[in-house]
Amino acid sequence: MQPNRRQFLALTALLAARPARAAGGIAVIDWALLETMLALGVVPAAAAELRQYARVVGEPAVPPGVVDIGLRGNPNLELLSSLAPGLIVISNFYEYRRAAFERIAEVLSLPVYLAGEPCLPLLRRSTLELGRRLGQPRRAEDLVGALEAGIEAVRRIRHPDGRPAMAVNLGDRRHVRLFGDDTLFGGVLTAAGYRNAFADTRYSMTAPAGIEALAREAEAELFVIGPLPPGGTEALAGNALWQALPQVTAGRVRLMPALDHFGGLPTATRFAALIAEGVPAR
Hints:
signal; 6-stranded mixed β-sheet; alpha/beta; Bact_iron-sidero_bind
């Protein structure tokens, strides 16, 4: 069977990288675990959807030479097998592919998000376990410590003191995604001392709520997680529904850069730092 263009390019990348790549490296499928691995100072041999990772996650950056094995939900197993990794790291999102991965190498599966469960304790445990397996336990402890320091900085600088807050992502001109306490962003807000105005939601990548729902907590501070819908801030300026929100008229809206909604501890620490720094209001 003739390879398609994606497979051809992937195999070309493999051949280019092979002189510097020894069998027994690590392949990682989940982005939260990829960013955590890089923050631990460990560079995998292969990872998934690296161009999209650069756009959505960005930090820590993936060094040149890491082989892109295709989509997270449907990686190129032939390419992955040819790399002969010693370990494949997945999250609970990819358990349905475990059998296929186990035919290639040992699999380490670590949870990063479970609907209805607090996210930050899961990420802490998974970070420490990943650090242990990769021989970087002290660095893993440092990542946990950095998040705690970031959360403490929010308490010290912003003085939440139980004030209401909400973290959202704009799906389109009329709908938002809400980050409850089972998410990374909602978890950081609550840990820092805010009262999450939408704590009991169950997060998904759909946009289940109308923008008007945000007006129910008129006094809340509103953190908008990027990316913004097409048109960006200009589109918001022309959106009458958005402009009518009490948080907007009072200047209690903070626009964040793009952050991975299912990120790891490094993303959580970045979010805390953005809150503490007082990102620009809109």
